[in-house]
Structure formats: structure tokens, C-alpha cells
Write a structure and sequence with these properties.
Nucleoside Triphosphate Pyrophosphohydrolase; 9 strands; elongated; DNA-binding; nine-stranded mixed β-sheet; alpha+beta; Endonuclease III, domain 1; single chain
Amino acid sequence: MNPEARTALLAHYDAVRRDLPWRGESDPYRILVSEVMLQQTRVDTVVRYYEPWLRRFPDVESLADADVDEVLREWEGLGYYRRARNLHAAVRAVRERPGGEFPETALELRALPGVGEYTAGAVASIAFGEVAPAVDGNVRRVLSRWFDEPEPTVSWLRARATELVHLTRPGDWNQALMELGAVVCTPRNPKCAVCPVSKWCAARAAGSQAERPVRARKPRVRAVDMLLVVLQCDGRVLLVRRPDGGLLGGMWAFPESEMTLGAGAGPTPTEEMEAEIATVVRGLDAAIVGPPLPLETVVHRFTHLHVTYRPYIMKATATVADGSGRAWVSASEAGALAIPVAQRRVLDQLTWEVR
DNA sequence: AACGCGGGGTC
DNA sequence: GACCCAGCGTT
């Protein structure tokens, strides 16, 4: 493609690359862990999770042996919890391979759960030196500007990235492109003055870099009021396990019900709220022995959802048999479970008095 | 191609 | 408050 530009970018990467925990790593398991954690997640966030994760799950064997609950607990706060479940399944799949050997090609890696086009290329190039492209959001933006392509398609990106990838240092090349996008070729106010490839950049020449790639239309955010039912009995509260497939899948949370009454919920529950609480409690095969009392509301923003959690606490009889999907937990037991951040904030309001 | 899926940093 | 991040799986 353009040997001069590639040399300039690699030289820039060598000179200024950040010192990250996984930099220079050669263990494919560790590289896979870092790449999965980095999916849709900022470097600064991943840095806080990476090393604790490796202390708990240092290799394929230890992660494959672990229970999914431990895996989710270690992932708690990172978001996109499907990633943790997929990673867990992926190392189990690796263990089942002949000799338990780690897949070494992008094609084989791609077959692992949670490993898509990007992650397969990244791990193959970084861990095994395969000449494979790796196109993430950063690279998309860099290439869109480099070639002044307003709306790059997946196939166009794959073609450009494949042409460009360095033949002897593919892993460093892919990381150099991503690092350029993260540090220099940023979404807003790109730092063209310090960019090592600005003199080959078509958008820079046209002055269109600020508009590349063109913004996608913004998705509308839905506002939701969510009733949370906090049943308390003998210093324990009832948590239910959320369905695997959906939002916050597999994590433990308070029983909830979406309310349509808007922001009117005050210090005392409305009749409508009382009725909804009763419905939820009935569904849990429990019985209330005291009045529902409001806890502080907790606001949490998901990407497409703006949720106001309205927790009500009440004493109840622990008539629920502990099935796999329900559990009466103490404070210390709650500490060991994977619980969504917003609901952890509700838990933090509890005093855990016995009776 | 579009959508669901977390949480947090940045401007 | 809007944007967006070292994406993937499903439909």
C-alpha cells in the first residue's frame, strides 16, 4: 500500500506506546482476556480488572474449572456480561480441543464463543503473528479519515485493513492503528498536528476530518420507572437470578416490575404501587408481614434505557423454597454474588438488622 | 442491516 | 445531556 506511511506509523507507535499490563504479552490466554475485556470498554477501565482477573484465573485451566457465578462475580462492573459467559465457554472449548491446545489461527479463534472478526484478528496477529487485519471502532475512524470515506462499509474496511496490515509486525501494526485512533485520531478534535500519517491523510487534505465518519442517527433513549421489591426476613433479603439471555443475564437482583406511572412515586407507595408490589410478592410465593417502606431511588443509565429504580423494603415470611433461581442472602453472601451496580447501591442502603 | 447488551469517561 | 468506547450474537 504505502510503505512510507506504514513505517511512520510503526515508528510512532514504538516511540510513544503506553505501558499497559498486557503490552508485550505473548500468552494467548492473557491476550484473549484483554481483548474480550476491551470490547466496547475503555482501556482505563480494563486496567482495573485485568490483573485481579489473572490472579483469580491465571490460565485456561483455572477459568475452565471455575463456576459461572465466580466468573460473573469477577466481571462485575465491567458490563456486557455476556462477554464473561462467552469467555468462560471459550476456554472450556479450548480445553476440549485435541491436546487442549489454544487455537492459533484467526479462522479457528473465530469459532470460539464471544470471538468475532475483530477479536480473532487481534489475537491471531498479536499472539501468533498471523498477517490478519483487526478492525475495531478506532480503526474504522482512522481508515475513514485516511481515505476520506464518509460511510465505510464492513467489506470496504476489511479490504483496506487487509491491504495495509504489516507483513512482519502484524500485531504491532494492528495495535498501532488502534492506539492512533484512541490517542491521536480521536472522534472529536483529532490531533492532526502530531499525527504520524497526516501527510497521507485524504480527509486532512480535504479538511473533512471532523466529519469522518459521518454520525449515525442517534437512538432514542427510553425512560423507565422500575419497582424493586426488597423482601427482608431475619437479616436476609430475597434475590432472584436474572434470565441468561436478557439484560444483566445471570446476575442476582431484586425482583422488579416496570411501572408506567411516571415520576409520581412519593414517600408513601400509591395504591397502584401497593397493588403491583402485591402482584410481585405473590409471584414469589411469599407473604408480606409489614408495610412497604420506600428506600432511596437509584437512577441508572443504560445505553438505550434510562431507569429510575424505586425500591420498597418490607418484612416477609421466608416461605420460598431455595430453588436455583431464588436465594435469601445475608450481607456477606450478597458480597460474593454478581449484582448489577444500581442494585448494589440499593443493597448498600440496608442496615441488615435481624428482625 | 439493525438491535440488544453496561458502565463510565469526556466534552 | 450527548456521545462513544480495542464488539458480538441474533434476527
